[in-house]
Amino acid sequence: MPTTLVGAHVNGKPNYLTVAFCGVVQASPPMIAVTLGKIHHTNEGIRENQCFSVNIPSQDMVEVTDYCGIVSGKKTDKSEIFETFYGKLEKAPMIRECPVNLECRLIDILDLRGASEVFIGEIVEGYAEEKYLCNEIPDIEKIKPIVFSMYDNNYWGIGEHLGKAWSIGKNFAEGGKEKKAENDR
Known about the structure:
Number of helices: 5
Order of helices and strands: EEEEHEHEEEEEEHEEHH
Number of domains: 1
CATH topology: Pnp Oxidase, Chain A
Largest sheet: 7 strands, antiparallel
Oligomer: single chain
Strand order of the largest sheet: 2-1-5-8-9-4-3
Number of strands: 13
Strand content: 35-45%
Structural class: alpha+beta
């Protein structure tokens, strides 16, 4: 799972929470979902301001990223940890040190009838420095995102490129029976 830092304004200050349960839910209009435990301080700010940010930290930020998940904004002021900037929504704090930032307007909250809730946001704007892009598209190798392994509680980097999505599977279709036989061994 990708490791993100979700930002929200809480009690007039930026607050950031480490979140791994995050993903795109729709391409047009672009929407993203973040799942947070109901006890988190960040939830209050998302509800109050109807917006939040999703910031993608790079591997060199692993310690500070983990720290933001260890301490609660209820007890620790996280507003000075990063250089914060704002975009169109004015109340969705974003982290300048992160290679990619998504500014999101809250669309819905799903109560999972347990300890968590899902915040769905429409991505209003995305931000990335040119050095993290290739042909105006975020470049995974340049961003070097942090991947979280849930069941052994470890952070990992991204490995090698495996193939082009919606394309590499055509190789299987062309030689499917032989490849299936190889995979069944």
